[in-house]
Specification:
Keywords: Hydrolase. Pfam families: Lactamase_B. It is a single chain. This protein is an alpha/beta fold. It folds into two domains: about 190 residues, Ribonuclease Z/Hydroxyacylglutathione hydrolase-like (Metallo-beta-lactamase, Chain A, 4-Layer Sandwich), CATH 3.60.15.10; about 70 residues, Arc Repressor Mutant, subunit A, CATH 1.10.10. Helices cover about 40% and strands about 20% of the residues. A five-stranded mixed sheet has the order 1-2-3-4-5. A hairpin with a 5-residue loop joins strand 1 and strand 2. It is globular, with a radius of gyration of 20 Å. About 45% of the residues are buried.
Length: about 325
Amino acid sequence: MEWPPNHTVAYLVDGDEPLLVDAGMYGNRGQEELLAGLEACGYRPADIEHLLVTHTHVDHVGQVRTVLEAGDPTVYAPTRVRKCFDRELGAVATEIERNLAEAGLESEALETAVDRFCEIKGDMRTALPLECVDVWIDAGERVDIAGREFEPIYAPGHHVTHCCYGTTLGEDDVVFAGDMAIEPFRAAAIHSNFDDHVSDGIDAYFDALDRLEAYSFDRVYPGHGPVHERYAEAITDAQTDLEARLKTCVDNLEACTADGDAATAMELDAERVDERPDQVQQLREIVAILATLERRGRVRSSLEDGVRFYEPV
């Protein structure tokens, strides 16, 4: 990958009917990495009989077409993918523009950001065409794949379509966790990019972590970072980090409004990321954090000419 964490993981579960969990990063380098990884295990893309998707980010579905063009795998994806992809992109673009403007973006920066987020939406739909999905998976309904039973666990927050999959390997209870339960960091709360559900990202993340906390797994196969055996600790670490981000946001808001003027999410984002090039990318989480803080009564906001301003309570 060209951005942190600089790598992404797909997993091959071998057997009579080989299963691939996620399909790596899009682009030529992602294809080369996937082909080399399969070859190192004695496989080719044409050998894959089942392909299971955790969520639709392009670093996880980027090489679905590579596998499809080589063979005829059965493709499994969360049902919520269909709901997201069925939406007309023009309507989504309108939502994105309104929400970015509300966050404090202006003029050229706004237009550039809208174009970028729409491009991301288009890339995901291109990478995982709806017509290629054979089995739609509902969270909580166990599914048999390649003779193995999987339990889908809905885990949004990082992305609204995200599912983790619990199963057994040998005598161990394991989870293919996608971008949850990663060691040693927490994936960002991207949730819905800047669609109208952007403000739900943090609350959805907390709900997902609470749901995952009810499970116990011996080993985690995450979408980034090493395979590990610290499932419970990884969930707790993510919960702790989210709470810390909420506190940091309140502290930044208090500092930013010390002169008596309310602040936009964009102004707070500049405080957080120190004007890094990916500032607008990080803005999604700030907007969601502020929405959660407002629901908790920690901040209040007002909408003025399409721009939302915040101040601490």
